């Protein structure tokens, strides 16, 4: 049995992983899919002070309190920076890092450094609709890409209704690494969502680094022909990639 820790992206919550988590659990694995502080079922905890460090410290506390080890930690979108920082804090407890349609941040970077145009838009939305700090989620479909690549009902309406606001600080606070060598030793896998409409393609093209990374071995990059929220649109296919990691991880122990 492996332990999977699924970490959701911006404006989402643990609810986003329901379908993928079910497949992993049916295969006999332990799955944790918590909502980050201030999001999802923990939206009542949202304040201007909730930042990247808040999310990292909360997950590190959960991992240590539950004494989790050999964790396969999966991060979608915004959570790419979260799982990187968590793994840096407790590298001895993490067996694998899986980045779902997202970037790998470098020491000292914030989301704002990697996707400045997007975070500028978030800041403007926070000023206009969120008292200067609360970023409202996108709830209207974005052209042919739908909403995060979800284009069909009832999923589209469900996704729009489940999202919650997020603190601007989470996108602006830089990640600071303390164990870069131990972090670099953790195996990494990427799942790239190849579809999603012109808006998402434009955002990816504007990023300072290629997505997925160009230097990873072919076996460490998987492509899904769907939009950004693949855990909703292709949950079984995503779970299949994640399940493949369990025997690979065991083989690496010998």
Strand order of the largest sheet: 2-1-3-4-7-8
Estimated share of beta-strand residues: 5-15%
Structural class: alpha/beta
Largest sheet: 6 strands, parallel
Helix content: 25-40%
Mean pLDDT: 91
Beta-strand segment tally:
8
Number of helices: 11
What form results from the Cα inertia axes?
globular
Q: Point out poorly predicted stretches.
A: none
Q: What is the succession of H and E elements?
A: EHEHEHEHHEHEHHEHEHH
Terminal Cα span: 17 Å
Alpha-carbon Rg, integer: 17 Å
Describe this structure in words.
It is globular and about 45 Å long. The chain is built from 11 helices and 8 strands. The protein is 39% helix and 14% strand. Helix 2 crosses helix 3. It has 254 residues and is an alpha/beta fold. The mean pLDDT is 91. A 6-stranded parallel β-sheet has the order 2-1-3-4-7-8, sandwiched between helices.
Summarize the structure.
This protein has 11 helices and 8 strands.
Q: Topology of this structure?
A:
Layout: E1 3-7, H1 18-26, E2 30-32, H2 52-65, E3 71-76, H3 79-89, E4 94-100, H4 111-114, H5 116-129, E5 134-135, H6 155-162, E6 166-167, H7 169-172, H8 180-184, E7 188-193, H9 198-205, E8 221-224, H10 230-233, H11 235-251
Helix pairs in contact: 1-11, 2-3
What would the keywords be for this entry?
single chain; 254 residues; alpha/beta; six-stranded parallel beta sheet; two-stranded antiparallel ribbon; 11 helices; globular
